[in-house]
Amino acid sequence: MTIGVLATVTVAEGQGETFETLFAAQAAKVRANEPANRLYQLLRSRKTPGVYVVMEIYDDDAALDAHRASAHMAEGRPKIGPLLAGPTQVEVLDAV
After folding, report:
1. What is the mean pLDDT of residues 36-41?
2. DSSP letter string over 30-92?
3. What pTM does this model have?
4. Is residue 6 within 8 Å of 53, Cβ to Cβ?
């Protein structure tokens, strides 16, 4: 079953450009190394400064688990984490 993920992150003031640059590098690794990932897209809020949503689509739960356990995600967490203003809100959804 296809899995969707919406992850909402709030970036600390003044860190948006750095966050976007690091995310772009991470997204390139996801696209290059995760054939069961169908979408990995960063979106920036027009209404609330510093708020971003990551839209993700995976073939199945195993693909999502592999994404979370991947070396490129582990490598990116300590770089992106300090830029965030609070915890990431994650919602996992089933495609219909």
Report:
1. 98
2. HHHH-TTEEEEEEEE-SSSTTEEEEEEEESSHHHHHHHHH-HHHHHHHHHHGGGBSSPPEEEE
3. 0.93
4. yes
